[in-house]
Design a protein that fits this description.
single chain
Length: 283
């Protein structure tokens, strides 16, 4: 019995070691980097749409659906859509490997949370990849983030305790936005970069992009979360906002369109930083 138990333990250890080697394989690393590149493309286009929106030059949705339509109408847009789909699916697979095997840099006491977060990200990027794939093959359009937010809020609020759940989700988004902004301000993202392979001046640019871009990204999360809470408190699902309406609301503040300009430029910067991650992030 002891011998059999010892063999079972040895097999589990060997299987885990094999899995970790597979998670660090060149194909999986490529998929991870492709995912960061795809995310960067998406943020750059959303930021650019938001910038045009600030000056009244477009009525396009400054969100995922608007970005996909922009890609679809541009020269070489079909190729770009397939690059996005492959990249997002690649990110999902890479995050699943993190969820299954963890990362060497993860502290043991945080391993469970890190794996759960990686799994959640895998689900998000998998769904995003499917949406882009569906749009690329012409099987359907991409619903705007505003409509998705309203529909989900309305569906939840039809159930007992739904308003409370919407408030919790809204507060979670606000908390996530604050966390992302704080992490960016403290430049916590640097621990994931291969800084030794980046020149001094390039490193300064990457750090600047990551810091400002991350704060802008966090601001959008916080704004969307606030509107969810307001929608729940007022029992009006229509007040829930997606990315597009959250950005438009920034232009209605006392800061006027210039606040939207700042956030839009920040989103473009985050997209460029994601491109830097595709090159220099540890995967």
């Amino acid at each position: 019995m002891a011998t059999r138990t010892g063999r079972d333990v040895a097999h589990r250890i060997a299987a885990k070691a094999t899995g970790r080697r597979a998670a660090k394989s060149a194909p999986l690393r490529f998929l991870g980097r492709a995912g960061f590149f795809a995310r960067g493309l998406m943020y750059v286009v959303i930021g650019w749409i938001a910038l045009e929106m600030a000056f009244g030059k477009t009525s396009q949705q400054a969100d995922k659906s608007g970005a996909l339509q922009t890609f679809g109408r541009s020269p070489g847009g079909e190729i770009a859509l397939w690059v996005l789909a492959i990249g997002f699916f690649g990110m999902a697979v890479w995050r699943l490997s993190e969820a299954a095997f963890g990362t060497p840099e993860t502290e043991k006491k945080k391993a469970g949370w890190t794996r759960l977060t990686a799994f959640a990200k895998a689900v998000v990027y998998g769904a995003l990849g499917y949406t882009v794939f569906d749009y690329a093959i012409g099987a359907g359009g991409s619903q705007s983030s505003d409509q998705q937010s309203v529909d989900l809020t309305a569906a939840l609020m039809r159930h007992p305790g739904g308003r409370v759940l919407v408030v919790v989700i809204g507060l979670a988004l606000v908390g996530a936005g604050l966390f992302l902004a704080f992490q960016a301000w403290r430049q916590r993202f640097k621990k994931n970069l291969m800084l030794g392979k980046i020149g001094r001046r390039t490193r300064q640019v990457v750090e600047w992009l990551g810091r400002i871009g991350g704060i802008a990204r966090g601001a959008v999360f916080m704004t969307a979360g606030v509107f969810l809470v307001v929608a729940a408190v007022d029992a009006q699902p229509g007040q829930a906002k997606g990315i597009d309406s959250s950005l438009r609301q920034l232009a209605a503040t006392p800061g006027g369109p210039w606040l939207l300009v700042i956030v839009a430029l920040g989103l473009i910067m985050f997209g460029l930083y994601s491109g830097c991650e595709a090159r220099w992030r540890r995967v």
